[in-house]
Amino acid sequence: MVQNTTPRQDIYPKRRNPLPLLLTGFLIGLVAGAPLGWFSHQFYYRYRSAQVLLCRQQHFGQPEPQLQALCGSLY
After folding, report:
1. Are 55 and 70 in contact (CB under 8 A)?
2. What does the alpha-carbon distance between residue 75 and residue 72 come to, in Å, rounded to a whole number?
3. Is residue 15 classed as helix, strand or coil in its secondary structure?
4. Residue 71 DSSP class
5. Residue 48, SS3 per DSSP
6. Contact 55, 71 (CB under 8 A)
7. How far apart are CA 62 and CA 68, in angstroms?
8. Most exposed: 17, 23, 48, 66, by fewest CB within 10 Å?
9. How would residue 74 be classed by pLDDT, with cut points 50, 70 and 90?
């Protein structure tokens, strides 16, 4: 009978340093999140400005303080 003399591999991997993993996750999130945030902000801004302009058009002829109270402002 022949015995295997190669050392047995450890079944538990070595622990890795969490700092590079956290930095990598942060950078990936920053690169992916910044454009998504910018696009969603642009979409919301255009949607909100269209709502305000439509409300102002529907209430044409009313004084400005009343329009501000009804429709809000663009900014």
Report:
1. yes
2. 9
3. coil
4. H
5. helix
6. yes
7. 10
8. 17
9. confident
Instruction: Please give the share of the chain, as a percent, with pLDDT higher than 70.
Output: 87
Q: CA angle at residue 55 from 66 to 67, to 5 degrees?
A: 10
Handedness of CA 37, 38, 39, 40 (dihedral sign): positive
What single-letter amino acid sits at 54? L
**Separation CA 72–CA 69 (nearest Å):** 6
Which distant-in-sequence residues (6+ apart) come within 8 Å of 56 by Cβ? 67, 71
Q: What span, in angstroms and rounded, lies between the C-alpha atoms of 69 and 9? A: 73
Q: What is the pLDDT of residues 31-54, one digit of tens each?
A: 989 999 999 999 999 999 999 999
Would you say residue 19 has pLDDT above 80? yes
Residue with tokens 């900014």: 75
Q: Cα(42)–Cα(11) distance, rounded to whole angstroms?
A: 51
Q: What's the distance, Cα to Cα, between the start and end of the chain in Å? A: 85
